[in-house]
Amino acid sequence: MVTLGAPHRHYRRTDSTNARAKELAIAGAPGGLVVSADEQTSGRGRQGREWFAPPGGALLYTALLRPLGNRPALPLAVPLAVAEAAEALGDADCRVKWPNDVWIDGRKLAGILIEGRPEQDWAVIGAGINVSIAGRDFPDELRGAATSLAEHAASPPPVDEVMRALNETLARWIGADAGRVLAEFRRRDALAGREISWSDGAGTAAGIDDAGHLLVDRKDGERAVLGAGEVHLTVGRPPGDSG
To answer: Any residues with CB less than 8 A from the CB of 105 and at least 6 apart, and which?
Structure first.
């Protein structure tokens, strides 16, 4: 099994833990390296979106996976590890919004960004998990859409404890076989049955295929197959939710 967290490089303030981890990987850092920070000035998620986190309020984390090997289920395995770590530390039922956000009660707890250089046999796995951010401290545009572990525990766990839990769960899920990853992702699928739309269409999310693509039943009766790098989804309310 992969071991994560040794070595560990922590920054009080940096632009991006993924950027630092990539620099260290290029310089020859070993697999298992974890980079963390109290604050990021240029944290980002998929498709260049900015990641909000006040200093010390979130786990800002990147792990270096080297060798990368053949891990086609890695993008699905990572959010499962985040969900499992969060549930171990709070009273939460975590679901995964395809491809790589972790939700509690329809609100975003965590986001993931995986970047790699397969030709050099490594990848960096970035995760941002909201830990102690109070609901009132989220920007106006995120209130009602984001949540933190503090809202689902008697008291928020220390960020270091969240990191240790993620090191453990991520190491296990990285090594899990694809069949187990697919089954657990389907169990935690937050989109199944929801109305979703994207630039080229709309329909009802119908799970994932064995390659991890999102399946959508369109209103015209056709089934669309979406890749994670292709679309930005707009997600409707779950079935039966009129609020």
So the answer is: 93, 147
